[in-house]
Design goal:
Distance between the termini: 7 Å
Strand order of the largest sheet: 1-4-5
Structural class: alpha+beta
Order of helices and strands: EEEEEEEH
Mean pLDDT: 93
Number of helices: 1
Number of strands: 7
Largest sheet: 3 strands, antiparallel
Radius of gyration: 14 Å
InterPro entries: Arm-DNA-bind_5
Organism: termite gut metagenome
Protein name: Tyrosine recombinase XerC
Strand content: 35-45%
Low-confidence stretches: none
Amino acid sequence: MNIKRNIIFSLESRKKEGRPIVVNVPIRMRVVYAGQRIEFTTGYRIDVSKWDADKQRVKNGCSNKLKQSASEINAELLKHYSHIQEIFKE
């Protein structure tokens, strides 16, 4: 059975003293299905300037404060995405 769902990666919106935090922001994964929404943290953080919101991935050639490369983080995001897809296919 294939359940209709939507999986979105985005940066968490946080503010400190009324100003948006743009450095070292957590990457979240949101799963929407059957009118319900659940959000997970991915365990990765990135600066807002290094995030491609359209592609929902870290920009190529960038790294985070822990020196994790864009390719490493994006590969892990793809693993999260694939895992959720498998759950819905079962």
